[in-house]
Structures are given as structure tokens and as C-alpha cells.
Design brief:
Number of helices: 4
Distance between the termini: 118 Å
Helix content: 10-25%
Structural class: alpha+beta
Shape: elongated
GO biological process, one term: regulation of cell projection organization
Strand order of the largest sheet: 3-6-4-5
Radius of gyration: 58 Å
GO molecular function: cytoskeletal protein binding
Largest sheet: 4 strands, mixed
Number of strands: 8
Region (Disordered): 73-98
């Protein structure tokens, strides 16, 4: 026992309570006769930090209820406030034009380069002109579809003398490609249009003044440069 215990229990001095030395004459029926129980030890124990409160107080009610003890009050659900539509996003998407201002890379129609050279093996190489020039005093050709006189390049069947202006030629090709009833009809209409050749009247570089004479008002150098540029661009049509 410590010195503090001997100081608080002086009646135990002289008693032989060491380990192995038991009091055989102890009667369990009268526990109060035991020298260790003659004076009750304080419940606070020994030491300055002994607790004085009750260890387990089951009657104490917590200020915060448990998870399952909450009562959910029935609240009226209000409709969410509809946010404003920024930057005109409230318009119908189906009415918008989603086509791009400039087509993408894969949308271009690839055209092979045509060979505009006309020659035989070992012969002189000649460049086929992009448009044939018809030299006449007056141009009386009219379009077979719109019955108008073409002012610039137009298409002419040199065998049948039938003509088509540039706008009507585009329409004929579109109808043959999209409005043909069968594949054979489309091929037949396309082959018929291939017989038309691009021609132009000679008024772009000389004038006749209602005579057979030709008065040229463009130099040969400018004329050759014009033909060279047109022939080069005609390879990619």
C-alpha cells in the first residue's frame, strides 16, 4: 500500500495483508468484520482529478435528437423559376439555317484534270482552246430553251446548230442528273448534252461594222495571255 493509503487507513497498520498471508479465520457471513471494510473508501478514489459526477446517467435527454427522430414538415413545393433565354436561344432550332457559310473540306467535288493537248506521236502539240470563236458579221444564234440571244459564252451543237445559254445548260445538266426516271435515261440525256461545245462570237476582240472586214482592237499579246489563262482553267471544269 502507498503512504497515502496508510495515512487514510491507520487501522490497517499491523495487519498481515501481504500476498500469500491470508486471514483464515475470516467469516464471509459477516463481511463488516474484515479489517479492510471497517471504513468505507471514498467513491471519489484517490488523486486530485477524480470524477465526482455519476458515470452513467440514462435519464439525461440530449438536446439534439437522433437521425430518425426528426419530423419532416410537409412543405408546399414551389415551381422553379424559369431562367431567361440568353442570346436568342428561345427560337426554334428547326427554322434555323444550319448550312455553313463556307463548305468544309470533304464537301468539295473533286474533278480530275483534263488533257487539253491535241497531238499525234512525233507531231506538233496543239492546245485545244477553251471556247471556239465563231466569226460572223451578226450573231443570230438563240437559246432553244429561253429563246434569248446569248451575250457571252454559250453552248452549241455544231451538228444540229442548236444552242443553249449558260444558265439553261446548267439547268439541263441538273435535270438530267436529278430528274431522270432511270439510269439509262440519265446516261442518254448526259451524252446528248456532251455534244454541245462552248463557243463565243468574235465581237470580244474585233468588230465588223456590218462588213466582211475585221478591225481588231486588242493586241495579239493580250489575246494570247487571255487564251493561255482560259485554257489552263478549262482543265479543271
Amino acid at each position: 500500500m502507498s503512504a497515502m493509503m496508510h495515512r487514510h487507513q491507520p487501522e490497517l497498520l499491523g495487519e498481515n495483508l501481504a500476498p500469500g498471508c491470508h486471514n483464515i479465520g475470516y467469516d464471509s457471513g459477516t463481511p463488516e468484520a474484515h479489517p479492510a471494510l471497517r471504513k468505507r473508501i471514498s467513491r471519489k478514489g484517490y488523486g486530485p482529478l477524480a470524477a465526482t459526477s455519476v458515470r452513467f446517467n440514462f435519464e439525461e435527454v440530449s438536446n439534439s435528437p437522433g437521425v430518425g427522430d426528426y419530423e419532416l414538415a410537409a412543405r408546399k413545393q414551389s415551381k422553379p423559376k424559369q431562367s431567361a433565354k440568353p442570346f436568342g436561344s428561345g427560337t426554334d432550332e428547326r427554322t434555323k439555317d444550319h448550312s455553313l457559310a463556307y463548305p468544309g473540306v470533304g464537301t468539295y467535288i473533286f474533278k480530275t484534270r483534263k488533257d487539253i493537248r491535241h497531238h499525234s506521236f512525233g507531231g506538233t502539240i496543239k492546245i485545244m482552246p477553251a471556247a471556239r470563236t465563231i466569226c460572223k458579221t451578226e450573231n443570230f444564234d438563240r437559246c432553244q430553251r429561253c429563246d434569248e440571244r446569248p451575250e457571252v459564252d454559250y453552248w452549241k451543237n455544231l451538228r444540229t446548230e442548236r444552242c443553249l445559254c449558260r444558265r439553261c445548260m446548267v439547268k439541263e445538266l441538273e435535270e438530267a442528273r436529278c430528274h431522270s426516271k432511270s439510269k439509262s435515261e440519265q446516261t442518254q440525256r448526259t451524252e446528248t448534252l456532251k455534244e454541245y461545245k462552248r463557243v463565243r462570237h468574235c465581237a470580244y476582240y474585233h468588230r465588223h461594222d456590218k462588213t466582211s472586214a475585221a478591225i481588231q482592237f486588242i493586241s495579239n499579246k493580250q489575246l494570247k495571255r487571255k487564251f493561255r489563262l482560259e485554257n489552263y482553267l478549262s482543265m479543271f471544269e
